[in-house]
Design brief:
The protein is α+β, with helices and mostly antiparallel strands. It contains 2 helices and 3 strands; from the N terminus they run αββαβ.
C-alpha cells in the first residue's frame, strides 16, 4: 500500500494531543487587537480543542 501524503497546511495549523484530540490556535490574533478588552486578548493566547465533528481532519495528518 502506498504512503499517504500529509496535507501541509493542516499539519502547520493543527496538532494532535496524546489522547488524539485536535488542538489549534484561536483565530483573530494577528492584528487589530488594541481595541479588544484585556480579557479577550488573554483568551486569544490559548489553544482550542476542536470539536469531535472535525475528526475527519485526522486523515490529513496521518503520521502525527
Amino acid at each position: 500500500m502506498p504512503k499517504v501524503k500529509t496535507h501541509q497546511g493542516t499539519a502547520k495549523r493543527i496538532k494532535l494531543s496524546r489522547r488524539g484530540k485536535l488542538i489549534a490556535r484561536s483565530v483573530g490574533q494577528d492584528h487589530y487587537n488594541s481595541r479588544e478588552s484585556g480579557k479577550t486578548t488573554k483568551n486569544k493566547r490559548r489553544d482550542l480543542v476542536l470539536h469531535k465533528t472535525n475528526n475527519k481532519l485526522k486523515s490529513l495528518i496521518p503520521y502525527k
